[in-house]
Amino acid sequence: MQYDSQRLKKILIQTKRQVFSEIPGDNASILKGEGYDFCELREYEYGEDVKNIDWVISAKMQKPYVKLFHAQKELNIVITALMSGSIFFGSQRLKQELLTEIAAILGYSSIKQNDPFTSFVYNSTLHINTQKTKKISAVKTMSEQFFNYACLGKSIDYAALQTTLVSQIKKRSILFLIGDFIECNDLDLKLLNRKHEVCVIILRDKYEEKPIELGNVHLIDSNNYRAFEGSISPSLIASYQAQIKKADHELFTKLQKSGIKFTKIYTHENPISKLIGLLHA
Fold this sequence. Notes:
This protein is of the alpha/beta class. It folds into two domains: 5-26 and 75-279, von Willebrand factor, type A domain (Rossmann fold); 32-70, no CATH class. It has helices at residues 5-22, 55-61, 95-112, 137-148, 158-168, 190-195, 206-209, 234-257, 272-279, and strands spanning 32-33, 37-43, 65-70, 77-82, 117-122, 126-133, 174-179, 197-204, 215-220, 227-232, 261-266. The strands form three sheets. The protein has a six-stranded mixed β-sheet with strand order 6-5-4-7-8-11, sandwiched between helices. A hairpin with a 6-residue loop joins strand 9 (215-220) and strand 10. Helix 1 (5-22) packs across helix 3 (95-112). The two termini are 35 Å apart.
């Protein structure tokens, strides 16, 4: 696509400033183990390391007690962009640009917490975008590739998404799936969410959900280049709105039943507040 390199530069500067000044860092893990943050005190169990015994408390209680701490464990962050032709759409800015901004925020957040991140592009197959890294320069590399990715004429194979990611990502990770999730009836993420922590970020433009009356039009489907000629009438709009509302309800229900956190972000919105809400839900 290669459009507006100055716009990409502005996105990177803005997201970097937001992450390093607005998002709280260093999230403590809830895993128990050796670390610095005290978690709880409990009775010593046979076979445990005697170094963890609190001798002062043990003397008072007349039986051995050990201290447990929150483990400071490294998180593996995986950012997967679902790049179809429909991402190349937007009334104020393209969903592809919004996707790039969100990915940059997630990348910089990983670096801030000293966690490695990996990024992929997915449509009909999975493509490695950036290798596992903690280098801040990798955020720029990832963003450039997302921003300039040639998505027109491509569609998402939702049926194969879960199997593909399960086979590719071996180590438990926090997995962010970013896309518009339109016509995703075949989506199933239950197994993926059992193996990883999955967060879904849905991108939309307000005119996708509330289109305006246009009269007679000639349109091209950006996923498959199929042509449409007809009238965008009030009755057609009402039917379309009912369908997309039903599809979104089914998607949200499916994600909730699978225990997956999700949020929807529109192209006219600043994504930072919704991402903070998602990450701290």
